[in-house]
Amino acid sequence: MTAILQQLCAHDVAPQPWKNGGGRTRELLTWPGPQDWWLRISVADIEQDGPFSPYPGVDRWFGVLEGAGVELTWPQAVRRLHAGHSLLHFDGASAPDCRLLDGTTRDLNVMHRRGLGRIVVQRAQAQSAPPEGFGHFALFNLEALDVQRTGRPALHAAPWSLTWGEGAGCWTEVPADGHAWWIGFDEHGAAA
Strand 88-91 to strand 58-66: parallel, antiparallel, or no bridges (unpaired)? Predict the structure, then answer.
């Protein structure tokens, strides 16, 4: 498959305010479209304490990219997340209360409607390729790196970029040091 890689930098997306006024979101990808998405990837600025919005039927991955961190509280658990931690996976219906530890944070959100295709979200390691067996791939990177399809010139990804495309097993990554995450998605089959 020879689909072209697409790319978008979070800094080039106008932030949209949340309905509750607690922050702003930069939507990077909604697949297949913005109204009835199966997969949604965004970067959010949390500016004040308050509850997350509930997303029934959605699996959610959340991680702090910048700032001192947050404390998320559910009835049965409390989790503190800081920049550099792994993304936290949880049921979007169980919206936690969020407390900022020391000022605004910038965060990565990956959401997938449960039962609609399958998804995997994993940290990209040095010289890693996307997970195998998925027809669509995205790579979100915090620091500049190069991404390339096998046999094609590298595509430079500026910091805070999302690069995505199609084609199982046809990407290679040439990373700089820093944090990046692969998201593999396929519209067929049950969640992995």
Answer: antiparallel
User: How does DSSP assign 33-51, residue by residue?
Assistant: -SSS-SEEEEEEEE-S-EE
CA-wise closest residue to 48 among 89, 101, 108, 107: 101
Omega cis (within 30) before 15: no
| Cα separation, 36 vs 113, whole angstroms | 10
Cα 92 from chain centre? 14
Nearest CA among 44, 33, 62, 40 for reference residue 111: 40
Instruction: Report pLDDT digits (tens) over 25-65.
Output: 999 999 998 889 999 999 999 999 999 999 999 999 999 99
For residue 97, name the pLDDT band (cuts at 50, 70, 90): very high
